[in-house]
Amino acid sequence: GAAGVLRAGLIPSLVLKLKTELDEIQELILDTLSNCLRVEVSEALAAGAVTVLKEKLSHPSTAIRSKAAWVLLEISSHAEGKVAVCEEEAIPALVSLLEDTQPEVQVSSTGALMFAIVTPQGRSSAMGAEAIPPLLTLVAEETSKARLNAIKTLTLLAELPEGRKTLLEHRATFQRCLADPSEAVQRAAEIAITVIDWKP
């Protein structure tokens, strides 16, 4: 399993192989990395994984785009991963995937953003990449699988004064989410509204 791959020190080799292998193999590598990076991320970061993954975000294959974003999500769940994702400027690439035509890519990219923008630099990068409009689109789509992640990501952006100001104009979008069949979406929308309505 993942522990064995980590113990054997295979992460740098896997990252390297992502650049050259056939698409089907790349998918398997991304799955393996995803499992391993839940546990430990430093070897992957040292091997330049974020740069390679960022390139994969524009791959023609839906599966590879989605899985690359998912691996970035796993990386961003670690403190040092969040820093690397910001420093390697992967956030604008993730923002561009919010408008991907494939729902699974949208889900992975919103999830990765949600983790990556916990830091002030991450939020700033997302604002610079104009993340709010595509995120609002995902929130407004009732059938969007990315709706929950999009709400949570926007809630983080609402912590910035300029984010809050923009989102105040779209409060109704979050209000509509209170009727979502998913309790998680309802709760996230309630929290978002509270953050948006907060007055310093």
TrEMBL record:
Coiled coil: none annotated. It comes from the Eukaryota. This is RSP14 protein. The lineage of its organism: Eukaryota, Metazoa, Chordata, Craniata, Vertebrata. The gene is Rsph14.
